[in-house]
Design goal:
mainly beta, 5 strands
Length: 58
């Protein structure tokens, strides 16, 4: 499973996720939950907790 650090540009790659294809920046990580990161999306600046497996680095 990929690991993303803060400031990594990412895109939602899971075709079943409502934000498929949208891009954003990782704005927070939590060592206690390495399979999730917080992403601030470019389209609306909303921060969403995302599974790392639903993302790909840009």
């Amino acid at each position: 499973m990929p690991r993303f650090s803060v400031w990594t540009a990412v895109q939602v790659s899971n075709p079943e996720h409502p934000r498929t294809g949208q891009a954003g920046v990782v704005c927070a990580t939590n060592p206690a939950t390495p399979d999730e990161v917080a992403v601030r999306f470019d389209s609306d600046s909303i921060v969403v907790l995302m599974l790392v497996s639903d993302l790909r680095a840009l």
